[in-house]
Amino acid sequence: MNLIWLGKYRSFFENLSLYTNVYGQAYTIQGFHGTSVPCSLAQIQVLEYILENEEENQKMSEVARRLGLSPSAFSKNVKKMMDKQLLEKYRCSNNHKDIILKASPLGRKVYQEYMNSLWKRQFEKTFAMLDQIPEEYIARFAEILKFNAEAMLRQMDELQNRPEPDEAKQAVTLVKIE
Question: Of 96, 4, 86, 10, which Cα lies nearest the Cα of 49?
Fold first, then answer.
């Protein structure tokens, strides 16, 4: 059966599906990935997000949502990362319920090791290919990916009866949890 509705975009969606399926298989596998501590790609992704947004002091639920992870999958990764001493937990001084994550010194080191390894294995060539594409095309492609990810997140929220996220930001003082 020929799926006509995909039209000229068939190859694009076929390769996008291939990438997401392969990444999905590799996502939870523990390995060294050029690091001194074995991690999964999911854990590296959490480290990267926390490092990139460390000034935001986002609650665990906010980070999980931004990464498109279920709260339970995110919590499992955080527990494993805490056991490896890659993360530190903090509470807001005025709210003992919400937990804020920060990368530990070891977490920062492991992330840098990963990036040094990944640059040679994958991103050096990927960036060279992207350099051949006009920036506005890359930006448009990123919009397409984000639109589709957010649409799927909304659909998952509806299916699982999850409430809308609270976007309000307030200044907080953090207290480290031992």
Answer: 86
